Amino acid sequence: MGDFTCEDIYDWCKRKDVNPDHCIGICGNLNDVPEEDIESVLRPLYGVVRPIIIDQWKGDLGVICAVLVVTQSPLERDMIPMALPAGSVPGRKWKVMWPIARIDSEGEDSHGIDNVTFSPGLLAKEELPLENTPNLAPSEGNQLANALNNIAGAFGQLHHEGGYRRLRNFSGIMPVPSGEDSYETWRENAVQQLEEWQCAESVKRQRLAESLRGPAGEVVQATRRGNANATSQDYLKALDLEYGSPEDVNDLVYRLRHTYQKQDERLSSFIYRLDKLIYNIVYKGGFQKVEVDKQRLQQLLRGALGSDPIAQKLRFTEVGREALPFHQLMNIVKQEEVLVEARDKNMKKAYTAVTKADVTASMEELNKNISDLSKRLQQLETTREKDQQTIVTARYPSMPFGRGRGIRTQDCFRCGRPGHRAFECRQRLNASFSNSDLPSQNPERSGNGRGRPVNPALVP
């Protein structure tokens, strides 16, 4: 612990790729202390906004002896004490250490003279390479650094003059005119270009204003009139208020927590949507850049479909437990998608071939069965017609009576016997003869009770 210095804190910040002005080191016996307790001690301090522990320093015995804390805004070193109470443990103190750049033997910053960043293109044009600069005293080195800094500020526009990628035009007119991008697309490109342009702030403001037309240009002009020292970031904030989404940080975080993978959506496309939303939150100050990988992986595992094979593999392997950078995570997902697509394609081909053969064989067998059934049905029809004709001939033989008909095909409705009809039935005639009150008993004269003559063939 005695060898841990402020220079180590500075190198620690460089390794984690965070701004040292936003970082602070807390040293002490922190092995059994939860991270929430350390953040709760720092949160009430003046100027400390959203402190987050991003790394731990372990000693030779594996004991945590220091943590690196990053905040949303720059820290004021004069407003924070050099020792802090150790949470709920009375009498114990935690030491506060600030990152300080290493100084070489000649008193100069090893990372550059007074932390001044020179433009390589400008040095090449002026033909003043740093390796040919003679060794100077500290005071002379400071004067030279200040002079070069002034030259870089005055002639910053010369750096990559005419070779930079110009932003596309944006006017703020709705609906979006042909040839222009929407505000969301234009702002993403603008933020990326502002980070890549290696030039003075005045040049960035000029290049940003060159791409604005109409109402959007008037917004920037109003911002410039209200604040003569406005930066390019101030221009973007003014444009966000006018054309950006009205959602604040809390709304964006809520939308992130409720963003899920759609049905039939690739996992890589889902990651792109998450990444875009997370960086919108970072731009509005909701997350730190060091939290991006963690937040992306957390929502990826939470919002992916349960039936997605790649998401299942991430949940149950070591890959899903590490907050990988965007390009590494996307590389893993893309490789898995290629394997899954190749497997599904082969399975589909095999299934199609087997199904086609089965259908062909089934159709042939079905046609054969239909042909056999048709033949059998024709045979049954022929047999049924012959049998029916035989039954009719045997049941209804030719008879010599019945009003000139030789064969009766109907049964009597009174007695049920064939060969005659109801008005010719013997039972009806017998009943009529026995119950008749007519004076004549001669059947030939009495008739059938209706005044019609009786068939002599039916009289006994």
How would the blueprint of this fold be written?
Layout: H1 6-16, E1 23-27, H2 35-42, E2 52-58, E3 64-70, E4 83-85, E5 93-97, H3 120-126, H4 138-154, H5 183-196, H6 201-210, H7 214-226, H8 232-243, H9 249-257, H10 267-283, H11 292-303, H12 309-315, H13 326-395, H14 426-435, H15 443-446
Antiparallel strand pairs: 1-3, 1-5, 2-3, 4-5
Helix pairs in contact: 7-8, 9-10, 10-11, 10-13
Detailed description of the structure:
This protein has 460 residues and is mainly alpha-helical. It has 15 helices and five strands. It has helices at residues 6-16, 35-42, 120-126, 138-154, 183-196, 201-210, 214-226, 232-243, 249-257, 267-283, 292-303, 309-315, 326-395, 426-435, 443-446; strands at residues 23-27, 52-58, 64-70, 83-85, 93-97. It is elongated and about 150 Å long.
**What is the makeup of the main sheet?**
5 strands, antiparallel
- With strands numbered from the N-terminus, the spatial order across the biggest sheet is 2-3-1-5-4
Structural class: mainly alpha
The pLDDT mean sits at: 75
